[in-house]
Amino acid sequence: MAREPEEFSYESIQDCTTIVAHLNALAAGFAHGRVSFVADHQQLALEPRGLLSFRLKVDRRSRRVKLTIKVSWKDEPEEVLARDPLTITPER
Length: 92
Prior knowledge:
Elements: H1 16-32, E1 35-39, E2 42-46, E3 53-61, E4 64-72, H2 78-81
Antiparallel strand pairs: 1-2, 3-4
C-alpha cells in the first residue's frame, strides 16, 4: 500500500553560525539514521538508509550565489535493504 505524500518546507534568512548548526544536525541525523524536522505547525521524521543519491550544485551569477544540496533515497522495507551480499567465485 502506498504512503500518503508528506511534505515539509522551511525558508528563512539566517547567519552562517545558524546554518552550520543546521548542517551539523543534519549530518548527525544521517549518521544515526533518523532526521526530524519541526517548524511552525509542521513535523516530519525521516529514516535514511541504504544507498542515497547525493547532488551538490553551485551557481554564481554576479553577486548572487546559490548552493544547493540534494539528498534522495527510496524508503524500502528493512528486508529489501538486508539482502544477502553478492558472492562471485571464479571457476578453477
